[in-house]
Protein backbone atom coordinates (compact mmCIF):
# COMPACT_ATOMS: atom_id res chain seq x y z
CA UNK A 1 0.00 0.00 0.00
CA UNK A 2 2.96 2.32 0.65
CA UNK A 3 4.00 2.05 -3.00
CA UNK A 4 0.46 2.81 -4.14
CA UNK A 5 0.37 5.95 -1.96
CA UNK A 6 3.69 7.11 -3.41
CA UNK A 7 2.48 6.34 -6.92
CA UNK A 8 -0.71 8.39 -6.46
CA UNK A 9 1.37 11.31 -5.25
CA UNK A 10 3.86 10.75 -8.07
CA UNK A 11 1.16 10.86 -10.73
CA UNK A 12 -0.14 14.13 -9.22
CA UNK A 13 3.37 15.54 -9.11
CA UNK A 14 4.11 14.70 -12.75
CA UNK A 15 6.74 12.04 -11.99
CA UNK A 16 5.27 9.62 -14.55
CA UNK A 17 5.89 9.77 -18.25
CA UNK A 18 5.49 7.55 -21.29
CA UNK A 19 8.04 5.96 -23.56
CA UNK A 20 7.12 4.76 -27.02
CA UNK A 21 8.34 1.63 -28.79
CA UNK A 22 8.00 1.60 -32.60
CA UNK A 23 5.94 -1.11 -34.28
CA UNK A 24 7.46 -2.00 -37.65
CA UNK A 25 5.66 -3.21 -40.79
CA UNK A 26 7.61 -6.29 -41.89
CA UNK A 27 6.70 -5.80 -45.54
CA UNK A 28 7.83 -2.20 -45.88
CA UNK A 29 10.22 -1.77 -42.95
CA UNK A 30 8.45 1.43 -41.95
CA UNK A 31 7.04 2.40 -38.58
CA UNK A 32 3.26 1.98 -38.46
CA UNK A 33 2.85 3.11 -34.88
CA UNK A 34 4.05 2.91 -31.29
CA UNK A 35 3.28 1.14 -28.02
CA UNK A 36 3.06 3.48 -25.05
CA UNK A 37 4.89 2.19 -21.96
CA UNK A 38 4.63 3.91 -18.59
CA UNK A 39 7.75 5.02 -16.75
CA UNK A 40 8.10 6.28 -13.18
CA UNK A 41 11.28 7.97 -12.03
CA UNK A 42 10.78 8.19 -8.31
CA UNK A 43 12.74 11.13 -6.87
CA UNK A 44 15.49 9.93 -4.56
CA UNK A 45 14.80 6.30 -5.51
CA UNK A 46 15.27 6.06 -9.27
CA UNK A 47 13.22 4.25 -11.90
CA UNK A 48 10.58 1.84 -10.59
CA UNK A 49 9.87 -1.09 -12.92
CA UNK A 50 6.49 -0.76 -14.63
CA UNK A 51 5.39 -4.31 -13.82
CA UNK A 52 6.01 -3.43 -10.15
CA UNK A 53 4.12 -0.14 -10.06
CA UNK A 54 1.31 -1.35 -12.35
CA UNK A 55 0.77 -4.28 -9.98
CA UNK A 56 0.66 -1.83 -7.05
CA UNK A 57 -1.89 0.31 -8.92
CA UNK A 58 -4.04 -2.76 -9.67
CA UNK A 59 -4.61 -3.31 -5.94
CA UNK A 60 -7.28 -0.62 -6.06
CA UNK A 61 -9.38 1.34 -8.52
CA UNK A 62 -6.44 3.75 -8.72
CA UNK A 63 -5.35 1.69 -11.74
CA UNK A 64 -8.33 3.29 -13.54
CA UNK A 65 -6.99 6.79 -12.77
CA UNK A 66 -3.56 5.76 -13.99
CA UNK A 67 -5.06 4.14 -17.09
CA UNK A 68 -7.05 7.29 -17.84
CA UNK A 69 -3.88 9.37 -17.59
CA UNK A 70 -2.02 6.98 -19.94
CA UNK A 71 -4.87 7.10 -22.48
CA UNK A 72 -4.94 10.91 -22.50
CA UNK A 73 -1.16 11.33 -22.60
CA UNK A 74 -0.60 8.71 -25.32
CA UNK A 75 -3.41 9.85 -27.64
CA UNK A 76 -2.38 13.51 -27.30
CA UNK A 77 1.21 12.60 -28.19
CA UNK A 78 0.20 10.32 -31.09
CA UNK A 79 -2.15 12.91 -32.59
CA UNK A 80 0.99 14.91 -33.42
CA UNK A 81 2.59 11.92 -35.17
CA UNK A 82 0.44 12.02 -38.25
CA UNK A 83 -1.04 8.67 -39.18
CA UNK A 84 0.83 6.65 -36.56
CA UNK A 85 -1.18 4.22 -34.47
CA UNK A 86 -0.79 4.16 -30.71
CA UNK A 87 -1.14 1.02 -28.58
CA UNK A 88 -2.04 1.47 -24.91
CA UNK A 89 -1.88 -1.32 -22.34
CA UNK A 90 -5.17 -1.43 -20.44
CA UNK A 91 -5.26 -3.41 -17.21
CA UNK A 92 -7.99 -5.96 -16.60
CA UNK A 93 -9.37 -4.02 -13.68
CA UNK A 94 -9.77 -0.88 -15.80
CA UNK A 95 -11.25 -2.81 -18.73
CA UNK A 96 -14.00 -4.30 -16.56
CA UNK A 97 -14.83 -0.92 -14.99
CA UNK A 98 -17.74 0.81 -16.76
CA UNK A 99 -15.77 4.08 -16.81
CA UNK A 100 -13.29 2.64 -19.32
CA UNK A 101 -15.67 3.43 -22.20
CA UNK A 102 -15.84 7.15 -21.42
CA UNK A 103 -12.12 7.22 -20.58
CA UNK A 104 -11.36 6.02 -24.12
CA UNK A 105 -13.96 8.32 -25.72
CA UNK A 106 -12.73 11.34 -23.76
CA UNK A 107 -9.10 10.68 -24.71
CA UNK A 108 -10.08 10.39 -28.40
CA UNK A 109 -12.16 13.56 -28.41
CA UNK A 110 -9.62 15.60 -26.41
CA UNK A 111 -6.75 14.55 -28.70
CA UNK A 112 -8.67 14.46 -31.98
CA UNK A 113 -7.01 11.12 -32.76
CA UNK A 114 -8.95 8.91 -35.18
CA UNK A 115 -10.40 5.89 -33.27
CA UNK A 116 -8.84 3.47 -35.78
CA UNK A 117 -5.39 4.70 -34.71
CA UNK A 118 -5.93 3.64 -31.09
CA UNK A 119 -5.11 0.05 -30.17
CA UNK A 120 -6.23 -1.19 -26.75
CA UNK A 121 -3.86 -3.93 -25.58
CA UNK A 122 -5.20 -6.47 -23.13
CA UNK A 123 -3.86 -9.79 -21.93
CA UNK A 124 -5.61 -13.02 -22.81
CA UNK A 125 -6.56 -13.82 -19.19
CA UNK A 126 -8.70 -10.67 -18.98
CA UNK A 127 -11.13 -12.18 -21.48
CA UNK A 128 -11.86 -15.26 -19.43
CA UNK A 129 -12.11 -13.53 -16.03
CA UNK A 130 -15.12 -11.26 -16.43
CA UNK A 131 -17.88 -11.03 -19.09
CA UNK A 132 -17.83 -7.21 -18.89
CA UNK A 133 -14.37 -7.21 -20.47
CA UNK A 134 -15.73 -8.75 -23.68
CA UNK A 135 -18.73 -6.46 -23.65
CA UNK A 136 -16.55 -3.34 -23.33
CA UNK A 137 -14.24 -4.52 -26.09
CA UNK A 138 -17.23 -5.19 -28.34
CA UNK A 139 -18.49 -1.62 -27.79
CA UNK A 140 -15.06 -0.05 -28.33
CA UNK A 141 -14.56 -2.00 -31.55
CA UNK A 142 -17.99 -0.92 -32.78
CA UNK A 143 -16.76 2.65 -32.24
CA UNK A 144 -13.72 1.98 -34.41
CA UNK A 145 -11.02 1.33 -31.79
CA UNK A 146 -8.82 -1.70 -32.44
CA UNK A 147 -8.06 -4.38 -29.86
CA UNK A 148 -4.85 -6.39 -29.47
CA UNK A 149 -4.37 -9.52 -27.38
CA UNK A 150 -0.97 -8.98 -25.72
CA UNK A 151 1.56 -11.57 -24.52
CA UNK A 152 -0.33 -14.32 -26.34
CA UNK A 153 0.76 -17.84 -25.51
CA UNK A 154 1.66 -17.23 -21.88
CA UNK A 155 -1.83 -17.75 -20.46
CA UNK A 156 -4.10 -20.73 -20.75
CA UNK A 157 -6.39 -19.57 -23.53
CA UNK A 158 -6.93 -22.31 -26.07
CA UNK A 159 -6.34 -21.53 -29.71
CA UNK A 160 -10.01 -22.35 -30.37
CA UNK A 161 -11.01 -19.45 -28.08
CA UNK A 162 -9.55 -17.13 -30.73
CA UNK A 163 -12.61 -17.88 -32.87
CA UNK A 164 -14.83 -15.61 -30.80
CA UNK A 165 -12.28 -13.21 -29.40
CA UNK A 166 -13.25 -9.55 -29.85
CA UNK A 167 -9.85 -8.55 -31.25
CA UNK A 168 -8.10 -7.33 -34.39
CA UNK A 169 -4.48 -8.03 -33.53
CA UNK A 170 -2.59 -10.80 -31.74
CA UNK A 171 0.84 -10.15 -30.24
CA UNK A 172 2.99 -13.24 -29.85
CA UNK A 173 4.77 -13.11 -26.50
CA UNK A 174 8.48 -12.45 -26.67
CA UNK A 175 9.27 -15.64 -24.71
CA UNK A 176 8.53 -17.63 -27.92
CA UNK A 177 10.65 -15.34 -30.04
CA UNK A 178 13.70 -15.10 -27.76
CA UNK A 179 13.88 -18.79 -26.92
CA UNK A 180 16.57 -21.06 -28.41
CA UNK A 181 14.18 -24.01 -28.21
CA UNK A 182 12.93 -25.07 -31.68
CA UNK A 183 9.72 -26.24 -29.96
CA UNK A 184 9.01 -22.64 -29.02
CA UNK A 185 9.64 -21.53 -32.60
CA UNK A 186 7.14 -24.14 -33.81
CA UNK A 187 4.59 -22.87 -31.31
CA UNK A 188 5.08 -19.31 -32.61
CA UNK A 189 4.47 -20.61 -36.14
CA UNK A 190 1.28 -22.36 -35.04
CA UNK A 191 0.03 -19.31 -33.13
CA UNK A 192 0.59 -17.09 -36.19
CA UNK A 193 -1.22 -19.56 -38.43
CA UNK A 194 -4.18 -19.86 -36.03
CA UNK A 195 -4.39 -16.08 -35.67
CA UNK A 196 -4.45 -15.65 -39.46
CA UNK A 197 -7.25 -18.23 -39.69
CA UNK A 198 -9.31 -15.88 -37.54
CA UNK A 199 -8.31 -12.79 -39.56
CA UNK A 200 -6.12 -11.33 -36.82
CA UNK A 201 -3.03 -9.30 -37.69
CA UNK A 202 0.02 -10.77 -36.00
CA UNK A 203 2.70 -8.75 -34.21
CA UNK A 204 5.88 -10.52 -33.10
CA UNK A 205 7.32 -9.06 -29.90
CA UNK A 206 10.86 -8.95 -28.60
CA UNK A 207 12.83 -9.20 -31.87
CA UNK A 208 16.49 -8.80 -30.95
CA UNK A 209 18.36 -10.55 -33.79
CA UNK A 210 18.27 -10.84 -37.57
CA UNK A 211 17.67 -14.58 -37.21
CA UNK A 212 14.55 -13.95 -35.14
CA UNK A 213 13.40 -11.40 -37.71
CA UNK A 214 13.81 -13.92 -40.53
CA UNK A 215 11.81 -16.52 -38.58
CA UNK A 216 8.82 -14.28 -37.85
CA UNK A 217 8.80 -13.06 -41.45
CA UNK A 218 8.68 -16.68 -42.61
CA UNK A 219 5.75 -17.17 -40.22
CA UNK A 220 3.90 -14.39 -42.03
CA UNK A 221 3.79 -12.00 -39.07
CA UNK A 222 2.65 -8.60 -40.35
CA UNK A 223 4.45 -6.46 -37.79
CA UNK A 224 7.14 -6.64 -35.13
CA UNK A 225 8.61 -4.84 -32.16
CA UNK A 226 11.92 -5.31 -30.43
CA UNK A 227 15.31 -3.95 -29.53
CA UNK A 228 16.60 -4.86 -33.04
CA UNK A 229 14.49 -1.97 -34.35
CA UNK A 230 14.31 0.26 -31.29
CA UNK A 231 13.94 0.33 -27.54
CA UNK A 232 11.03 2.27 -26.07
CA UNK A 233 11.96 5.93 -26.55
CA UNK A 234 11.16 9.33 -25.08
CA UNK A 235 8.92 11.39 -27.42
CA UNK A 236 11.82 13.65 -28.50
CA UNK A 237 13.76 10.58 -29.65
CA UNK A 238 10.71 9.24 -31.52
CA UNK A 239 10.71 12.41 -33.60
CA UNK A 240 14.34 11.77 -34.64
CA UNK A 241 13.73 8.15 -35.75
CA UNK A 242 14.31 7.38 -39.42
CA UNK A 243 11.12 6.50 -41.33
CA UNK A 244 12.62 3.15 -42.33
CA UNK A 245 13.85 0.84 -39.56
CA UNK A 246 14.80 -2.22 -41.65
O1 LIG B 1 7.89 -1.13 -20.21
P1 LIG B 1 8.18 -2.56 -19.99
O2 LIG B 1 8.47 -3.12 -21.30
O3 LIG B 1 9.23 -2.82 -18.96
O4 LIG B 1 6.80 -3.10 -19.41
C1 LIG B 1 6.67 -4.06 -18.41
C2 LIG B 1 5.22 -4.46 -18.26
O5 LIG B 1 4.44 -3.35 -17.79
C3 LIG B 1 4.58 -4.94 -19.55
O6 LIG B 1 3.79 -6.09 -19.26
C4 LIG B 1 3.70 -3.81 -19.95
O7 LIG B 1 2.57 -4.28 -20.66
C5 LIG B 1 3.31 -3.20 -18.61
N1 LIG B 1 2.98 -1.78 -18.78
C6 LIG B 1 3.80 -0.79 -19.18
N2 LIG B 1 3.13 0.37 -19.27
C7 LIG B 1 1.85 0.10 -18.92
C8 LIG B 1 0.66 0.87 -18.81
O8 LIG B 1 0.62 2.07 -19.11
N3 LIG B 1 -0.48 0.24 -18.38
C9 LIG B 1 -0.49 -1.09 -18.07
N4 LIG B 1 -1.64 -1.62 -17.65
N5 LIG B 1 0.60 -1.85 -18.18
C10 LIG B 1 1.76 -1.28 -18.59
O1 LIG C 1 3.73 -7.03 -21.85
P1 LIG C 1 4.14 -6.05 -22.90
O2 LIG C 1 4.31 -6.69 -24.24
O3 LIG C 1 3.27 -4.83 -22.94
O4 LIG C 1 5.58 -5.56 -22.48
C1 LIG C 1 6.41 -4.85 -23.25
C2 LIG C 1 7.76 -5.02 -22.57
O5 LIG C 1 8.70 -5.66 -23.43
C3 LIG C 1 8.37 -3.71 -22.15
O6 LIG C 1 8.93 -3.91 -20.89
C4 LIG C 1 9.48 -3.52 -23.19
O7 LIG C 1 10.52 -2.70 -22.68
C5 LIG C 1 9.93 -4.96 -23.41
N1 LIG C 1 10.61 -5.18 -24.67
C6 LIG C 1 10.33 -4.62 -25.86
N2 LIG C 1 11.16 -5.09 -26.83
C7 LIG C 1 11.98 -5.98 -26.23
C8 LIG C 1 13.06 -6.82 -26.71
O8 LIG C 1 13.42 -6.84 -27.87
N3 LIG C 1 13.64 -7.60 -25.77
C9 LIG C 1 13.27 -7.62 -24.47
N4 LIG C 1 13.94 -8.42 -23.64
N5 LIG C 1 12.27 -6.85 -23.99
C10 LIG C 1 11.61 -6.04 -24.86
MN1 LIG D 1 1.91 -4.50 -24.47
NA1 LIG E 1 3.50 -8.25 -24.74
UniProtKB/TrEMBL annotation:
<feature type="domain" description="EAL">
    <location>
        <begin position="1"/>
        <end position="246"/>
    </location>
</feature>
<protein>
    <submittedName>
        <fullName>Diguanylate cyclase (GGDEF)-like protein</fullName>
    </submittedName>
</protein>
Amino acid sequence: AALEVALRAGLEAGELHLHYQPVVDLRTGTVTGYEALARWDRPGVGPVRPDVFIAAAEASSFVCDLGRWVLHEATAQAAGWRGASIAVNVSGRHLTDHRVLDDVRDALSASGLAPALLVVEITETVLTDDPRAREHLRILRAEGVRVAIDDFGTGFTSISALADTPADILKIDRSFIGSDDPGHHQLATLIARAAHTFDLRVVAEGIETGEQLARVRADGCEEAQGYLFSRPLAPEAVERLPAQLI
